[in-house]
Design brief:
Layout lengths: L5 E5 L11 H22 L9 E5 L24 H12 L14 H14 L3 H20 L1 H18 L3 E5 L1 H12 L5 E7 L28 E8 L19 E4 L10 H5 L2 H7 L5
Parallel strand pairs: 1-2, 1-3, 3-4, 4-5, 5-6
Helix pairs in contact: 1-8, 2-4, 4-5, 5-6
């Protein structure tokens, strides 16, 4: 029996697997997400096609810091420096009005803004709190630690080089990592890059810090990428702006509705028929 075509998935925020070796963590995540990808093929009306084999480029262990072990606890009081800048940029991009000056803890305006956004989007404030803390911490570590940034990019590049996929699925912060890794290793050729819930175009926190540096307000396509599809749920509060701000040479944008409670998970995007449809011609 022919081995299924490999597809490399580059994970996003909140995927640290404490106590596990990187290879074990990658295999665990792949096993967790493989059924969701199969569900996406069924949702797309493609059950007759073989479902690609997911291989995960795991790098979360390289982001881990002592204060980041509870990255999903939603503790806004622990955000400091550039982490708070990332959180503020995210809230601004989400359409939150500038909070009124408040007395009390320095994070109170951030909490007010988060509460406003949660009420407007119909999502629990603690859920949004966990997301913004994870995003702020992990984006901060990736963008501010030059040596770790290089090692993370090399880890993703090595996964692509080892498995030689035609398709790379890059989710959340993983889309930033994959974008930079494919630029840093121009010898890597990928027929299709699919970014899922991507914050690549997030102004004030991510876009301006990309490597290579954007020119004239636009980011460049990685040289080895033949086609680029971007999928974002309109309710995904990490995929801001959802169409990457029109700042990248994306071939196609699609709105993938994955659900209010599942608005940013990789599993949610893999279960979307749009993901399967985008990659079906390349992953058979």
């Amino acid at each position: 029996m022919t081995d299924p075509t490999p597809v490399v998935a580059v994970h996003g925020i909140g995927n640290l697997q404490p106590g596990r070796a990187p290879a074990e963590a990658a295999a665990l995540l792949a096993a967790q997400w493989q059924p969701r990808l199969a569900a996406g093929y069924t949702a797309a009306g493609l059950p007759h096609l073989p479902v690609p084999r997911l291989e995960v480029a795991y790098y979360a262990h390289l982001l881990a810091e002592p204060q980041a072990q509870g990255a999903w606890d939603g503790d806004l009081d622990e955000l400091t420096g550039y982490q708070s800048v990332v959180a503020a940029a995210w809230l601004l991009a989400a359409g939150v009005p500038a909070p009124a000056e408040a007395q009390g803890p320095a994070t109170l305006p951030l909490r007010q803004a988060l509460g406003w956004l949660a009420a407007r989007r119909g999502v629990a404030a603690d859920t949004l709190g966990r997301v913004v803390v994870a995003l702020a911490r992990e984006v901060y570590v990736y963008l501010s630690r030059a040596e770790r940034r290089r090692r993370i990019r090399d880890t993703v590049a090595e996964a692509v080089r080892t498995h030689r996929p035609r398709v790379v699925l890059a989710h959340s912060l993983g889309s930033v990592v994959a974008y930079e890794a494919l630029h840093a290793h121009p010898d890597l050729e990928v027929d299709l890059l699919v970014t899922l819930g991507s914050p690549l175009g997030l102004p004030g926190a991510v876009f301006e810090a990309l490597e290579p540096e954007p020119r004239d307000g636009r980011g460049a396509r990685p040289p080895g990428v033949a086609r680029w599809v971007n999928l974002a749920d309109p309710g995904d509060l990490v995929a801001l702006p959802p169409r990457l701000g029109g700042r990248f040479p994306v071939d196609r944008h699609e709105e993938a509705y994955i659900g209010r409670m599942d608005f940013h998970t990789l599993g949610g995007y893999l279960g979307s028929g749009l993901t399967a449809t985008a990659m079906a011609a390349y992953a058979t």
